[in-house]
Amino acid sequence: GQNIDQPTEMTATEGAIVQINCTYQTSGFNGLFWYQQHAGEAPTFLSYNVLDGLEEKGRFSSFLSRSKGYSYLLLKELQMKDSASYLCAAAVNDYKLSFGAGTTVTVRA
Amino acid sequence: EAGVTQFPSHSVIEKGQTVTLRCDPISGHDNLYWYRRVMGKEIKFLLHFVKESKQDESGMPNNRFLAERTGGTYSTLKVQPAELEDSGVYFCASSQRLTVDRASSYGYTFGSGTRLTVV
C-alpha cells in the first residue's frame, strides 16, 4: 500500500521560513510532487523531484532523499498569500498520485 | 490555454439520488484522471483514462460509480445511487501523453473540483 505522512498544521510569521516535511512509503515510486491548494481552488503545481537533492525555484525549494523516503518543502520569505494547504504526493507506477493529507500553513503578520 | 473545467462546482443531493459530474480537460490532453477527497482525509485516486479507454480504475470505490469518456474528450462521473459517505470534493486532472520530463512534470493540471454533499 501507499503511506504518505506530513504534519497537519504549521504557523509562521510573515518573512520567516517554514519547512514542511513529508515521509513516504510507496511501491513503484516515480517522483515526489508538492502542490499548493487555496481553499475552494484547484491544487497547483509547485515542484517535482525524482532524483536525490535540492531543487530551488524562487522562494520555494524542495528536497528529496529516496533512500530515506523523505522530502521537504521549504518556503522562504513567507508572505500572507502563502497561507494555504500544501500537499505532498508520490507518483506511483502508472503516474497516478498518492497524496498525503496536506499541511495547512498559516502565515501571521 | 483554458484550464481543466469541472461542472457543477457544488451539488447537494439526497441519499439515493443520482448525480453526474462533468470534467472538460485541457484540449489535446489524452490523459484524464479522477480523484476524490472525503472530508478530513487525503485526496485519493479513482481512475485514469487514456483517450476513451480506462487505463486504471483500481481506485473506484464500488459499482455505484461509473465513469465514461466518450470520444476521448470530456468525462463524466456518475454516482447512482448516492450514499452519505460519497460526500466530498471530486477533482479531475488532465495531462498530455506521458513522458518522464521534469520540465513538464507530467503536465498534471487539476480542476477546481466539484463539492458533492449527500444528505
Beta-strand level of the residues of chain A, as a percent range? over 45%
Q: What is the subunit organization of this protein?
A: heterodimer
Q: Low-confidence segments of chain B, ≥5 residues, pLDDT <50?
A: none
Separation of termini of chain A?
41 Å
Q: Which blocks of ≥5 consecutive residues of chain A have pLDDT under 50?
A: none
Structural description of this entry:
The complex is a heterodimer of chains A (109) and B (119). Chain A has strands at residues 3-5, 9-13, 18-25, 29-37, 44-49, 53-57, 60-65, 70-75, 84-92, 96-99, 103-108. With 109 residues, chain A is mainly β. In chain A, the strands form 2 sheets. In chain A, strands 2, 4, 5, 9, 10 and 11 form a 6-stranded mixed sheet that branches. A 5-stranded antiparallel sheet of chain A has the order 1-3-8-7-6, with no helix packed on it. In chain A, strand 6 (53-57) and strand 7 form a beta hairpin. Chain A is globular. Helix content of chain B is 0%, strand content 47%. Chain B has no helices and 11 strands. In chain B, strands 2, 4, 5, 6, 9, 10 and 11 form a 7-stranded mixed sheet that branches. A 4-stranded antiparallel sheet of chain B has the order 1-3-8-7, with no helix packed on it. In chain B, strand 7 (65-68) and strand 8 (75-79) form a beta hairpin. The mean pLDDT of chain B is 90. Classes of the chains: A mainly beta (109), B mainly beta (119). Chain A binds chain B through residues 4, 30, 33, 35, 40-45, 48, 50, 87, 89, 91, 94-102, and chain B through 3-4, 31, 33, 35, 40-45, 48, 55-56, 59, 91, 95, 98, 100, 102, 105-106, 108-113.
